[in-house]
Write a structure and sequence with these properties.
Length: 114
């Protein structure tokens, strides 16, 4: 991950990532995703029944570009659990199908959705 001390966008991203147990950087919102990959990611998280925050990268171009550098991952959506980068929608799907994502959430003691 990049040096947050010299980059205010990285500092904002780090604050979001570290301030939420589960956060999804996505295109759109959970109620109105703006791409199929973001829609798939939301469906997975909703199916797992975990509490999560989301960030609409379409509303903030600095975050949209900065998150790619922050994670060294070129695509959106991006999932973080307990401050750690997990991956994008394809990785989420693979982990979900293998039962690994539910296991990760349980091991991380992620709260269920309200």
């Amino acid at each position: 991950m990049s040096d947050t001390a010299n980059n205010p966008t990285d500092a904002r991203i780090a604050e979001i990532v570290n301030g939420n147990d589960v956060v999804l950087f996505m295109k759109g919102t959970p109620l109105f995703p703006q791409c199929g990959f973001s829609s798939r990611a939301i469906a997975i998280l909703d199916h797992l029944g975990v509490d999560y925050a989301s960030v609409d990268v379409l509303q903030d171009m600095e975050i949209r570009q900065g998150i790619k550098t922050f994670s060294d991952w070129p695509t959106i959506p991006q999932l973080y659990v307990k401050g750690e980068f997990v991956g994008g929608s394809d990785i989420m799907m693979e982990m979900f199908e293998a039962g690994e994502l539910a296991q990760l959430m349980a091991e991380a003691a992620v709260k269920p959705a309200a």
